[in-house]
């Protein structure tokens, strides 16, 4: 049953609003308020502004009890937001380091990021539960992105040939209209379509290309690491594409042999630590077989902990030899970048492209380059 508007405001403003709003919460509303106070009452600055403070007594809720209450009291969208804040805003690691809690939370990308950050704290029992969650989220991402990649690389329309296959995206509107004009009804002002026409689709021959994904595994790049693993798995095995996946911080780890199993790959990633981007670019240079048929995709926030000057020099060498270099400040669904703009600008000046993309947009960019 939906809450009354006054009760909604009371939940937003917290106990500090009791004087103005009065006792407007029923039993369910009080339970919701208790769950919200358990989480947001730990926000120190709110007490100074008199907003959403915790109650006068200490909360006796444990993390499992809070999770159970949240799943009972709130809709799915709110549950995901509360769990996200618990993990990312307040670092309540119990959410992802206890098997009984982990089995209750909603599998989503927020939870996956938290698992990757805290998996070193997990005992084998918890790790087994965490792996199942990683598998479920990765499967959902793979299903969505694989469709985009297949569509992007599926070929181009051949407008000179007709096809017996009735596929909506190959629909030939002009030919269909022309061949059915005699069935136009002036009274009804419509055409009765007896037979629809469709274009044929042909695959272009492409030379073998290398796509080298260099992924910064610093803590701020967690979402991009996840989507890089899934993107690499979707690109793997495409005709004419040889995919490499390399993770780096102050060291470089080649994860290419695990590309076909993104779950195993992600469980090997170690988020956090420093960043030596130029070292990763140097490693990529050693993988290149044919410079003019190679794409190096550098996924990083461009906060270089090594030598910025050496990074610029190495990228310039790649661009000068004909290799296409794309710097991605973010690779995630909303593609929200937070990066060192000065470093990125210096790379653009020597021939690189810099952007923030969704995984689907990256696939389209790769398809465009290999077909050029």
UniProtKB/TrEMBL annotation:
Pfam families per UniProt: VWA_CoxE
SUPFAM superfamilies documented for this protein: vWA-like
Domain VWFA intervals: 208-367
Gene3D superfamilies listed in its UniProt record: von Willebrand factor, type A domain
SMART domains: VWA
Protein name, per record: VWFA domain-containing protein
């Amino acid at each position: 049953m939906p809450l009354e508007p006054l009760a909604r405001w009371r939940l937003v403003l917290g106990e500090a609003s009791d004087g103005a709003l009065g006792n407007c919460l029923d039993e369910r509303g009080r339970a919701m308020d208790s769950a919200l106070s358990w989480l947001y009452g730990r926000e120190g600055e709110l007490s100074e502004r008199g907003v959403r403070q915790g109650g006068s007594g200490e909360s006796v809720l444990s993390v499992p009890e809070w999770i159970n209450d949240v799943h009972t009291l709130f809709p799915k969208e709110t549950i995901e937001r509360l769990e996200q804040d618990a993990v990312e805003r307040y670092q309540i690691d119990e959410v992802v380091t206890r098997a009984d809690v982990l089995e209750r939370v909603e599998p989503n990308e927020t939870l996956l990021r938290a698992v990757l950050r805290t998996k070193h704290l997990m005992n084998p029992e918890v790790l087994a539960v965490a792996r199942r969650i990683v598998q479920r989220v990765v499967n959902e991402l793979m299903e969505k992105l694989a469709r985009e990649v297949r569509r992007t690389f599926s070929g181009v329309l051949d407008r000179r040939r007709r096809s017996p296959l009735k596929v909506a995206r190959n629909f030939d509107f002009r030919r269909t209209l022309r061949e059915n004009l005699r069935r136009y009804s002036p009274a009804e002002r419509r055409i009765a379509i007896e037979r629809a026409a469709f274009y044929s689709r042909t695959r272009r021959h492409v030379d073998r290309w290398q796509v080298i994904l260099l992924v910064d595994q610093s803590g701020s790049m967690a979402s991009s690491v996840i989507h890089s693993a899934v993107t690499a798995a979707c690109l793997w095995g495409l005709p004419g594409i040889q995919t490499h996946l390399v993770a780096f911080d102050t060291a470089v780890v080649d994860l290419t042999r695990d590309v076909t199993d993104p779950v195993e790959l992600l469980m090997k990633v170690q988020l956090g630590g420093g960043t030596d981007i130029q070292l990763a670019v140097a490693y990529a240079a050693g993988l290149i077989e044919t410079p003019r048929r190679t794409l190096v995709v550098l996924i990083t926030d461009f906060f270089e902990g090594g030598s910025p000057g050496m990074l610029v020099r190495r990228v310039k060498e790649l661009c000068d030899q004909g290799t296409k270099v794309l710097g991605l400040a973010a690779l995630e669904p909303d593609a929200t970048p937070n990066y060192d703009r000065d470093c990125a600008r210096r790379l653009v000046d020597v021939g690189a492209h810099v952007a923030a993309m969704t995984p689907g947009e990256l696939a389209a960019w790769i398809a465009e380059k290999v077909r050029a």
